[in-house]
Automatic annotation (TrEMBL):
Keywords: Amino-acid biosynthesis, Aromatic amino acid biosynthesis, Isomerase, Tryptophan biosynthesis. Its EC number is 5.3.1.24. PANTHER family: N-(5'-PHOSPHORIBOSYL)ANTHRANILATE ISOMERASE (PTHR42894). Pathway: Amino-acid biosynthesis; L-tryptophan biosynthesis; L-tryptophan from chorismate: step 3/5. It comes from the Bacteria. InterPro entries: Aldolase_TIM, PRAI_dom, RibuloseP-bd_barrel, TrpF_fam. SUPFAM superfamilies: Ribulose-phoshate binding barrel. The lineage of its organism: Bacteria, Pseudomonadati, Pseudomonadota, Alphaproteobacteria, Sphingomonadales. The keyword Isomerase applies. This is N-(5'-phosphoribosyl)anthranilate isomerase. The keyword Isomerase applies. Coiled coil: none annotated. Belongs to the TrpF family.
Length: 209
């Protein structure tokens, strides 16, 4: 069975349409000022509307304050909130009580100890997204983690793989990890923040969509 595929960091109507028309099941909007993929709330709300009913929309936040989070959720009303910083289980549980969105937690997968530590999110996060450990930015850097860490791991929550995926390696990532969801951002760009429709098409094809 083909995995779900999320194309993250989309910032234009044209690339939203292309990703969805080519088969992406999820799209991601980044609301994090240091990112080259940052979209302001007005833009994000318009893009969210454009994707509504066609693909699941994830809003990516990184250690956003209470006010930033509530402003963003009120403006965008995403299907999913992807927390990509060092947000605590308590904060995620608070947000979960307040909004009907799915809660995803991204974690940098460094070693087997990470797989123990994520248990703190069980019952709170609806999905764990394994990514490379944070670099200068906490994500979107095109860095892979050691996929073999997931070999034989018994997952206690829904999960997915992100980090350094490209049209050339996504099939191998799926085969090695058995990921039910893959997530890509920089691997389908021609420059930081500039999505490339041909690369999106190649990624979706290589992922089996
Ligand atoms: O995309 C970003 O700019 C970003 C910024 C801050 C945190 C996460 C970000 N993106 C997410 O990072 C992973 C991996 O991205 P990549 O494929 O290696 O470029 C993915 O989940 C993005 O959604």
């Amino acid at each position: 069975m083909s995995p779900f595929v999320k194309i993250c960091g989309l910032s234009t109507p044209e690339t939203i349409d292309a990703a969805i028309d080519l088969g992406a099941t999820h799209i991601g909007l980044v609301h994090y000022a240091p990112s080259p993929r940052h979209v302001d709330l007005k833009t994000a709300a318009a893009l969210r509307q454009r994707a509504a009913g066609r693909a699941k929309v994830a809003l990516l936040l990184v250690n956003a304050s209470q006010k930033e989070t509530s402003d963003a959720l009120a403006a965008i009303r995403p299907d999913i909130i992807q927390f990509h910083g060092t947000e605590t289980p308590e904060w995620l549980a608070t947000v979960k009580r307040l909004v009907p969105a799915e809660i995803w937690k991204a974690v940098g997968l460094k070693d087997a100890g990470t797989l123990d530590r994520i248990e703190q999110y069980r019952g709170i996060a609806d999905r764990i997204l394994f990514d490379a450990p944070a670099q200068a930015l906490p994500g979107g850097t095109g860095t892979r983690f050691d996929w073999s860490l997931l070999k034989n791991h018994r997952h206690s929550m829904d999960w997915g793989v992100a980090g350094g995926l490209t049209p050339d390696n996504v099939a191998q990532a799926i085969a090695e990890t058995g990921a039910p969801l893959v997530d890509v951002s920089s691997g389908v760009e021609s420059a930081p923040g500039v999505k490339d429709v041909d690369k999106i098409a190649a990624f979706l094809k290589a992922a089996g969509l």
